[in-house]
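Onboarding guide, step 5: your first structure request.
Type a short instruction followed by the sequence, for example:

Predict the 3D structure of this protein.
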Amino acid sequence: MTIVLIRTIILYLIVLFVIRIMGKGELSKMSPFQLIVLFMIAELASIPIESPDVSMITGVTAIFTLLFLQVLISFISIKSEKLKNFFNGKPSILINNGDINHKELKKLRITVNDLMEQLRIGNMPAVSDVEYAVMESNGELSIIPKAENKPLTPKDMSIKKQPEIMPVVFISDGIMYRKNLTQAGWTEEKLLKNLSMMNISSCSDVFLAFCDSESRLHIYMHYGKNNMAKEITE
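The system replies with structure tokens like these:
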């Protein structure tokens, strides 16, 4: 039992390390090749745990071999577009200039009903409203509506907008994040002054405080006995 516990901990740390080395980009939208690598890593990690007679070195060596192949192929794919398309596939245009590409639908074994379902998921229920629909290499459908169906933007209306900032959390469960304050252009003194204006004496009393994209402060405090948090206003 102790051996299984130790092996599990070691292999967990090794697999975690391998996945981190593979990078965030590999995990965001995985290609079939990347899925195969992850499945094989999971299978190889389970073998030494389930079979104590199997050497740990054998399992770890196999896992690092897959890591090496994944990194190598990712590097080669950057240098060669042909190899990238071979391993990851390439996008397919299903709707081109408003016309449905029957050949690509048949090639990808996608029915018209499947296409309509994906368009509805993308908030574009009518094919007549779509200029382009592209099946990306990761299986996700990208939809580009026709010009007359695109929502108006401030640029279309010649409205000048101030640059927005990234919304960040200032306080969570009573803990202040000073790095986030600096990132949003705030200071600790400014935050405490705003809290004081709302009759809040300490950060430890705040459940959540965050700054939105327009640099406005939002504060949530506990209320009642049902573990709910409610926003308070100035």
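Each response can be followed by summary notes, for example: The two ends are 58 Å apart (CA to CA).
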